[in-house]
## 1
Amino acid sequence: MKATLKKRFQGLYWRQLFVTAGTVLLTLALLGASFFSLSYNYAKQQRTEELQAKAQVVATFSAGYLKDSAFSSEAEFGNLASFAASVSDVDFLICNTDGQVVLTTDEQQAGKVISMPENLVEDAVKNGISAERGDLDGLFPKKRFIVGVPVKVASTDEVVGTVFAAAATTSLDNMWQAFAGLFVMTALVVLMVAFMATSVTTMRQIQPIREMAQATRRYAEGDFDIRMNDYGRDDEIGELASSFNNMAETLQQTERQRREFIANISHELKTPMTTIAGYTDGILDGTIPPENEKQYLQIIAGESRRLSRMVRRMLDVSQLQAMDPLKGGNRFDVCESMRRVIISMEKKINDHHLDVDADLPDEPVLVLGDNDMITQVLYNLLENATKFARQGSTLYMGVTTIDGRARVTVRNEGETISAEELPLLFERFHKSDKSRSEDKDGVGLGLYIVKTILEQHKEKISVTSENGVTTFTFSLRVE
C-alpha cells in the first residue's frame, strides 16, 4: 500500500503540482516578508517622527522648569504637561540630567521613583533623539514606543534634562494583524487558483503521455492498430502525437511486410524442398524405378540450385537495402553499361530468336550512382524482357537525356499485362501465371531488386503494358 502511494505521488502530475505549490508559497512568503518589513519600518519611522515632534514641544516649555527648579510653579507646569498628554494621547516623562523622572503624566507612575535607562538618556543628549520599543524594564505593563529628546535652554543651548514620549503600540499591532489576515486569505486564494490552473494544464499534458505509454505497451505486445489522439493541438504534444502515429504506421507497415515476406518465402521455399524430399524418398524406398533415378536426380539437382539462387537473391536484397550508392559521388557511363549487358545476354537473346534495337547516344552519358548496381538493374530488366518476349520480336533498349536526367527505357513485345497486375510486378516473390508455369528458374525477386536499387538511388521505375508492348522506364541524374 505504501509502495503504491509512493509510486503514485512520484508521478509527473504530482511532481508538477508540488513544484508549483512550492514556488507559489515561496513567492508569497518572500513578498509577504518584504512588504511586512517595509511597512513596519515605515510605520515605525512615522511614529518616531510624530513622537519626536510632540516630545520637542514639551521639551520647549520644560527648559525653564528644569533649569530654574521653579518648584513653586510645579502644579501649573504639571497641568500643562497633562494637557499636552491628553491632547496627543501620549504620556510624557520629564527627566533631569541624571535621568531621574521629575514629572510624569502617567497617573499609574505618579509618586514612583523612576530612572530612565542610561543608554536612552545618552542617545537623546548625544544624538538629539533616542527611540526604542519596550516596557522600560517592566515599568509599563505592555510594550510602547518611547522617543526621547534633550531639553535645552534656548539662549545658551545648555542641556538641562530630557523628555520622553511614550505611546501605546495598539494601532500598529492592529495594522499588523489586519495585514497578516489579509495576507493569509490572499495566499489561500492564490494557492487555490494556482492549484486549479496547474491541475488542468498538467493533466492536459499528462494525458497524451499516458496514452503513449499505454500504446507503447500495446506495440510491445504486437498490436499496431492503436493510434494517438492529437487533441487538435499544434504544440510539442501535438507534434509528438503526430510523430507517434507516423511511427505506428511505419511499424504496422513493416510488420505487414514482414508477415508477407515470411508467408512468401515459406511458400517459395516449400515448393523446391517438397520436390527434393519427395523424389529423394521415392528413390530411397524404391517407388521410382532404377532406370528413372537419373532423371529425377537431375530434377533434385535443379531444384537445389534454384533453392540456392533464391537464398542468394534474398541475401543480395538485404545487402542492397543497407548501401548508400550516392554517398561517394561516383559517376559512370550508363550507355557503356547497357552495351555490356546486351553482350552478356547475347546467348539468351539468340535462343529466343530475338532482335535488339539499341538506341544509344554516341557520346558518353555520365550519371550519378553505383555502376555495378545499375548494371544489375539493366541486366534484370533485359533478362525479364527476353524471358517474356514473343519469339522473333524485337527488344528495345534506349537512353535519352531530358532536363538533366538520363531516361532509360527497356521494351519488349509479348503478352499484355493486366492493369491490376502491373502494381504487383515489383513485389517480392511475385510471378505471373505464365512465369510460374513455364519458367521454373525464376524466384520472383528480379524486379523487386530493380525497385530496391533505384530507391537507393532516390529514383523510381514505371511500367506500362498496352497492345502486347510492355515498357519499363527509369531515370538517373546526369552529372
## 2
Amino acid sequence: METSDLKHPEAAEKRAKVAAAEETIQVLDLYQTREKIYVRKLQGFFQNLKRFTGIPMLTAFLVLPWFQYDGRQLLWFDLPSRKFYVFTVTFWPQDFMLLAWALIIAAFALFTVTVMVGRVWCGFSCPQTVWTWLFMGTEHFWEGDRNARMKLDKAPMSWNKLWRKTGKQLTWVAIALITGLTFVGYFNPIRELVPGFFTLAAHPAAVFWTLFFTAMTYMNAAYLREQVCMYMCPYARFQSVMFDSDTLIVSYDKERGEPRGARKKGTDHRVEGKGDCVNCSLCVQVCPTGIDIRDGLQYECISCGLCIDACNAVMKKMDYPPGLIRFTTENNLEHHGSHILRPRFIGYLVVLTGIISAFIYVIVARVPLELDVIRDRNVLYREVENGFVENIYTLRINNMDVRDHSYSISASGDYAFLYRGESQVDVAKGEVLTTVVRLAMDPGLMTSPNTDVIFSVESVDDPELLENQESRFIGPRIR
C-alpha cells in the first residue's frame, strides 16, 4: 500500500473498486456475443456449384420417404420392430456390424477427401451448410441484399419492417417444420405421420420428435449458422491433422496481391507500388463465416469458394487475370509446384478401396436367412421306445427376406439319425418361426458319448437361401 493510501483510505478504496471492475470486464470479454454476419449474395462458379450439390441432396431427403415398395416405405427405419428397410433390402439387429462398417467407410472417405481437397465437404455437402444456405436465401428474398438487410435491422419498427420480418420468420418455421416431419418420417411412416400430425392423431412420441427437430433446425440454420461450424463441429478442430502442404485449400496469393490498395481502372498499379488486391473487402462480405481469407488459412474456413467468385468478379472488372484467391496448395504458392500422389493420400485410398470392396462383398453375399439351434439342456438325453436315445432341439428360423418362403429342415451327421418334427415350414417375410424337433438313434452304434449334428434349412423356391447350424447329440457314456 502506498503512503498516500494511508492518509486517504477513501481514495484507496475507490481505486480498488475501479481495478476490480476493470478485471471483471476483462473476464466478461472472454465470452463475446455473436456478431451477426450479413452475407452478400454474388453469382459465380462456386455459387452455382453449391446449388448442384445442395438441391439434389435436399430433393432426395424430402422425396425418398414418400416412395413405396412392396407395400411398405422404400426407406424406413422401423425401430419398434427392429427392422431397417433400405430400398429392396431388409436389415436386422444382427446386421449391426454392417452399420459399423458403413460409418468406418464414411470416416475414411472423409479423411481421403480432406487430404486431397481440404474441407470441401463442409462447403458444399454438409447438411448444416445446405440448410443455412436455404435459410439465407429466404432471408435475401424477404429482406433484400446485404445493404438492405443492414439498413432494415437498424431502422425503427415500421409496417415495412414488420411484414418483412414476419414473412421471413414464418417461412423459416415452415422450412424447419417440413424438415422435422421428413426426418421423423424415416422412422415413422410419413404417409401416416403428416396427416396425423396436423389432425392431432399422431402418436405423442412422433409429435414430440417432430417438434424437437423442427426447433433444432430453426435454431441451427436461422441463428447459430457459422457458430456450429466454428465451435460445435469437431471436424473444424482436427482437420489440420489431415492437411499437408499439398492439400488443396482456398488461398490468397500474397506475392501477387500485396501491397493492397484502391486504384482507378486503367492505371498501372505496379508503377504505384501496389499489388492486384484492390482492398474492396468483397471476399469478406461473401464469406458465410465472416473471415478474411487474406489473413491466411483459418480453421473457420469451410472451403465454399465464394470468396473466389467475389475476387474473380473484381479481377474481371479491373482487367486483371483471375486467381488472386483460388484453390491451390501451400507448396504451389511457395515453390510453384505440388504433388498429388503422396504416401498419406495413397494410404487412405488403398484402405478406403479395401473396406469398400469388403463391404460390397458382404452385402452381395449376405443370405437373408438366419438359423438358431438351441439344444434342450434340462435333460442331456432321454430313453424312448426300442432302446433309442433322443435329444430335443428348438429351431428359430428368421426369414429376413422381403418375400415369403417355404423351408425344408433336415439334420445330418456321422450317424443316421431318426428325425422327428416338421420337415417343411412356411415363414412369412420378416417373421421368425420357432419349431421343436427331436433326433433319436440306437446308442449301441455310438462310438463316443457325443457327436456333431448339422441342421440345414433350405428354401424350397430359392435354393440359394441355405443356412447350416452345428449342434451336439449326446448319448449315454460308453463303458
